[in-house]
Amino acid sequence: MTSIGTSENYHLPEHRIMQVAKELNVDSDRIWLHGHYIAKIHIDELISRQDKPDGQLILVTAMTPTPQGEGKTTTTIGLADGLRRIGKKSMICIREPSLGPYFGIKGGGTGAGKSQVVPAEDINLHFVGDMYAVEKANNLLAAMTDNHLQHGNELNIDPRRIILKRVIDLNDRALRDIIIGLGGPQHGVPRRDGFNINPASEVMAILCLAKNFFDLGERLSRIIVGFTYKGEPIRAEQLLAVGAMQVILRDAIHPNLVQSIEGTPAFVHGGPFANIAHGANSAIATRMALKLADYVVTEAGFGTDLGAEKFFHIKCRTTGLKPTAVVIVATLKAIQFHGGNKPNGGYGNLLKHIENIRAFGIEPVVAINRFTDDKPQELNDLVKFCEKNDTVAVVAKHYEKGGEGAKELAEAVLQSIQKNKRRKFKFLYDLNLPIEKKIEKIAKTIYGADGVEYEKSAKNDLQLVERLGYANLPVCIAKTPLSLSDEPSLKGRPSGFKIKVNELRISAGAGFIVAICGSIVTMPGLPKVPASARIKILPNGKATGLS
């Protein structure tokens, strides 16, 4: 439901959601209203359109961002608005925001300025309950695991080798490593446990990669919760948890329809992080959008080294999707953050991301997200640098002008689609390669690393992956988003470094192997003064401090 108390920056949607759905020719029986401006579209809408051709898929990614981000979501929304301004039937596909960054440091995930999806407050806060459904499904499985220990442990689960963690949709470092089951025999079996943030849950990844209800159940059943005393895996299906988990996720599987400020239709569905998960909105939403619109603009989290690489190797491989254009978002702020216009500085960083997209057989377009205090000469210099490297770059003004400010970018993307039709999209590695070779290929080609090093525990994990028959899965590398390397302090285009793998985790249900690198954690912490400290409710019910 649309909230009663709104913020000072609240934008009223252009149309009621029924009108937006009608423009997409969605069957009225498949529209589930959540107030006047939000609706779920039943998955049957996708099934009914299976034989219709797909539209063009446009991916928005970025250079290595600053801690505040470079406006990738804002650019995604602005580009779709820009395409609509020049007469194209376009649609937006983005992830659902998490309360962790919203109350932490980065703020909301609904865009900014005149390029936002609305109602932004509702999307950023409780929305339609998908995040809670994922949390509850994950935690039900955890509760049933501990309940099995309490009542005799017939499966001989080793409490020391339970790998499933509980999740919560907040940043809370105190929950990373905890002891549960204290208080005596009536309160469970004491063991070491911990929490991940909700977007890092395997259940979230499964929801976002599932093809339909049946596939969702099959994937949930394959989740490995832990191991027996003999080292054999215990899966969710053995704990009889899958049916209940599916029921909790029954409504969450349907994509959520909202709109931009300008009325461009938008699916906001699913929310895995890109540094600790695969970082893309649900496959069902993307596939449905491609049946409803001629041009679908979607995003992948952070830079090409994280979101885009995983979008290609995990989401595209799983779904058969193929993007026909890629936009790399750059800002002067990020250029300066990474060392200015030096070859190994900000310019070098951007060039590496251009090379990364070319490695997949796609010629990218650079969107320079303009800030009002940017100097025209520095913007011109950046455009010329891109042109010198045979890349089209456009200064985009969607933040201040909405779709009107992104029309030039939209035209450049349309031209790029035509050029990319002559190129062949390709993956960087074959699934039959050993896990080490896959990680090495990404590290050397995408990060620019000299090689990969493994902690002893990670080497043991490699043996386990191979023994259980999961070596043919794609890899999902979890590392810092603030550097091409796994060390946040290495700015620009670093060289002479190696990636250190600390741990490998099997996400059997999602269908990939997670490699934990550097000092990455799967439960973020809050900064000294979090964004939540600025949020207040006024006597009239309006909120202040919401970004």
The gist of it:
This protein is an alpha/beta fold. Strands 1, 2, 3, 4, 5, 6, 14, 15, 16, 17, 18 and 19 form a 12-stranded mixed β-sheet that branches. A hairpin with a 2-residue loop joins strand 5 (111-112) and strand 6.
Describe the overall structure.
- By secondary structure, the chain is an alpha/beta fold.
- The chain folds into three domains: 53-117 and 264-420, P-loop containing nucleotide triphosphate hydrolases (Rossmann fold); 130-246, Domain 2, N(10)-formyltetrahydrofolate synthetase (2-Layer Sandwich); 435-517, Formyltetrahydrofolate synthetase, domain 3.
- The chain is built from 18 helices and 25 strands.
- Strands 1, 2, 3, 4, 5, 6, 14, 15, 16, 17, 18 and 19 form a twelve-stranded mixed β-sheet that branches. It has a four-stranded mixed β-sheet with strand order 20-22-23-21.
- Helix 3 packs across helix 16, helix 6 (130-150) packs antiparallel against helix 9 and helix 8 crosses helix 9 (242-248).
- The chain is globular.
- The two termini are 20 Å apart.
Keywords:
single chain; 547 residues; alpha/beta; Rossmann fold; Domain 2, N(10)-formyltetrahydrofolate synthetase; Formyltetrahydrofolate synthetase, domain 3; 3 domains; 12-stranded mixed sheet; 4-stranded mixed sheet; 18 helices
Tell me the Rg in angstroms: 23 Å
CATH homologous superfamily identity of the largest domain: P-loop containing nucleotide triphosphate hydrolases
Kindly report the CATH topology of the largest domain: Rossmann fold
Q: Find the count of extended strands (DSSP E, 2+ residues).
A: 25
> Distance between termini?
20 Å
Q: Can you name the CATH architecture of the largest domain?
A: 3-Layer(aba) Sandwich
Main pleated sheet: 12 strands, mixed
Count of DSSP H/I helices:
18
Top-tier CATH class of the largest domain? Alpha Beta
Helix and strand composition category: alpha/beta
Mean pLDDT score, rounded? 94
How much of the residues is beta strand, in percent? Answer: 15-25%
Which geometry do the CA atoms define?
Answer: globular
The total number of structural domains is 3
Uncertain spans, ≥5 residues at pLDDT below 50? 1-5
Helical content stands at: 25-40%
